Description:
heterodimer; A: alpha+beta; seven-stranded mixed barrel; five-stranded antiparallel sheet; B: mainly alpha; two-stranded antiparallel ribbon; globular
Amino acid sequence: MTIPANVRALLSGNGPKWALVALIDLALLYVIALLYFQGEILFPLTLLVLGSLGTWIFTSKCGYNYRYVYPCLLGIIMFIVFPMAYTFSISFTNYGSANILSLERVKEIHLNKLVKTGDHTYTLALFQHNNQFQLQLTDKNDSHSIYTSDTFVLNGDLTEVSARSGAHAKGNKLSMREVVKQRSALGSVAVILEDDTRLVMSSLREFSAMAPQYREQSNDYLVEIKTGDILRPDMTTGFYVTEAGEQVAPGFSVYIGGDNYNRLVTDKGIREPFFKIFVWTVVFSAGSVLFCLVIGLLLANLMQWEPLRERGIYRVLLILPYAVPAFISILIFKGLFNQNFGEINMILEGLFGISPEWMTNPTFARAMILIVNTWLGYPYMMIVCMGLLKAIPDDLYEASAIDGANPIHNLLYITLPNIAKPLAPILIASFAFNFNNFVLIDLLTAGGPMMPGTTTAAGFTDLLVNFTFRTAFVAGQDFGLASAIATMIFLIVGFISWVNLRATRSSQEY
Amino acid sequence: MMAMVQPRNLKYRVWAARIVMILLLCLVMFPFLMILSVSFRTGNFATGSLIPENPSLEHWAMVLGFEYTAADGSVVKPTFPVLTWLWNSLKVSFTTSALILMLSTTGAYAFARLRFRFKNHLLTSMMILQMFPAVLALVAFHAFFNKLGGVVPWLGLNTHSALVMSYLGGITMHIWLIKGYFESIDVALEESAYIDGATPWQAFRYILLPLSVPILAVVFVLSFIGVIGEYPIASVLLQGVDQLTLAVGMKQFLYAQNYLWGDFAAAAILTGMPITVVFLMAQRYLVNGLTAGGVKG
């Protein structure tokens, strides 16, 4: 068969490109296949769809214009859209520290389990001569049957050595402590006796004949070889269970339907902290926006005030809290607010004789968070307001000055009405930002002090995101429940951004 | 502004404003001055006045990775590899910013100049998607790289490449910024190039890009600042002490059971200073960029 001329031309002109696309696709398919065999579905599927789309775009002429958008869309889809979808799908599983593996991996672990067979157990003694080692195994029940192995090297590789009775070991007998050091290397040494019995290390001091505990049956069932008991994978709890109904760890992750959402609603120990945290999150976000706006707007007015000649210097200094990386300034405050050695309490103690418990009292902790966040956030509002103030025509203030208005009149009747509409979307965006201000809480209080009497740990200063983080990574890795909470936050944030879009539209009409 | 009607008591008002300003600046600057003072105090629990009585360089030596011999002859050893963290942060930020620049420039070009189906849909979805910060999907990021690492080890948890990849979603703001800039450049230049037989790629590469160097520099700096201060994803993905970035590592100084206030102070100044300077130089553009996405659409 000859290659058609147009194909040949295509191949000769774009040879390197085709090779590159083929190479990337091959690598991608390999990864997809491996992920699929690990029991993943959503992840390899996404890769497959994006990969084929990319292949089409970069090889077909129709896709030419998409070649420029594809890379950035790839980033957005893989790292914004996919994580959200993935979180949503995890929220319907029991994925967590007790059920972290896939069914395939758990089966593999069970199949690799070994049990002692036969009645003979041998106490081990290890001899070293230069780099060569020898094992001397003594039967526990019969101290006269002693086997000595051939020499071998201990380097962690799988080795088999044969052993004979009556041979002598060369070199020094190692102490128990030195044997312990070689423990893992010894684990990969198998000793073959004269009657072909194969011995492996069964405990720190012993060698014995071992055989797999389970063998595989169809449908992922396992059979215990010695007793014939059947282990059944329970797809509702994510554990292997015996016929008697006992669960055998480790667990694997399975879809459990809406259980996590159910727990959010019905378990009082989760529902109550969730609701409290939600209220605090709203109060915190609204409070932060309000304080930052008030201070930022007043300062912006001052910064525009002509008679204050040195305001350029003030401006740079006032912006500093915004310019210093947040992870540094938040930690500085954590140190300054420290109850025992913090400089703030030292000053308060000296001036007023008080030292508030910033880290252990919920009210003080919340007050501290608002203080710190106002300090962090007012410069942004100030900069934004300065921009908006510039857009207000000067003659409005001229006219009001002629009418004898004071600055408060100016603020209420000229400034505020003029900046309200363009400011609205910025305030909503700032609310949304603070709603998810994970960094501030995590670095300043880590959510503490803790709420008493909750099912999953929750703190008085936790925001919803921090509660998710705590559930997922700090207190017992309950990824399923954490994802359910995260999904709730998606809905709330979705609602906020819908409001924001509308506010933006109306500000554009203006 | 000279025509402005001036009230009679202006002088007093200016002085009142000045005093309020100075008091406020004291509050604003207090943490910075304090941390500067703490970094020169002896020991980690020392208290005292703003200007340390017995200034000591032990914390600075520690941060820079030197051993320090105190006055009584005892040797203080460095506790954390701060310079390694700084290097990690720089490495991750540089790579991420370069990749972000590539992705967002080509994307912005398509959105500004090319015609294709679903363009407006894509723009709207981008607007909505940028409202969902990555911090909401930390579990997914963790699970995702945990599983990917089982197949491709260099993309697993505790690797910098995984961290860089996870930052590639944060490009929407930069796309808006560059798109706005591209749209402000006259199309005539490119059109004449097309007449001479240029492909879209050539028009992009040889005409539009050279004209856009300023905005590309701004985007690079902005994304650099953003990445170097990023904490949530890094705190979930990175675990080993030597792999940490500054943002994750710094909090290790302030654990209750191992409270190193003085060492922290020196490390904070050393690492915070350059980032702050870069930020101050770029902040004008940052605010423009932040408002451009929301207001201009």
